[in-house]
Amino acid sequence: MDTQTKLILIVDDFKDDREMNSHYLTRCGFQVSLACDGQEALDNAFKLQPDLILMDLWLPQIAGWEVIRQLKADARTLHIPIVVLTARAFVSAEAVGCEGCLIKPCQPDNLLVEVMRVLERRSTNSGPTPQTGGVTTQAL
After folding, report:
1. Cβ–Cβ < 8 Å for 84, 123
2. How far is the C-alpha of 36 from the C-alpha of 123, rounded, in Å?
3. Which of 34, 70, 101, 105 could cysteine-pair with 93, CB 3.0–4.6 Å?
4. What is the SS3 assignment for 136?
5. Strands, DSSP E only, in the chain?
6. Sheet of strand 7-11: strand arrangement
7. For position 97, what pLDDT does the model report?
8. What average pLDDT does range 71-88 have in this prediction?
9. Are the C-beta atoms of 45 and 62 separated by less than 8 Å?
10. d(C-alpha 6, C-alpha 8), whole Å
11. Alpha-carbon distance 117 to 132, whole Å?
């Protein structure tokens, strides 16, 4: 997969997490855009049409849960896979309508594996990525 043509939107209110994940994914060849709150996430998703969104759930202005609901309800962004990246575990990615879930702190290699899994699955499907369920709980 040519990572240089893939844009990932990282949405996290914690600056260190945004910068760490951005730095790692950029080193892996991805293009990265950042958002620090729910409104900026919506604006960037509609404007940039990223290939994948890494979404924290606990955000200022508009909670990540609501951002996901709005993105999945809009025809312009329904197709964009979302991987939840949160410090609070929950039952499954399916519970919030996402294609994957990682629990923070997350090892960079595990982040890359999940991003690649979701992007590869998306590239083999013409529609929205099917859910796989489950929670990945790798910690540093």
Report:
1. no
2. 28
3. 101
4. strand
5. 7-11, 31-35, 52-55, 82-86, 100-103
6. 31-35, 7-11, 52-55, 82-86, 100-103
7. 77
8. 93
9. no
10. 7
11. 11
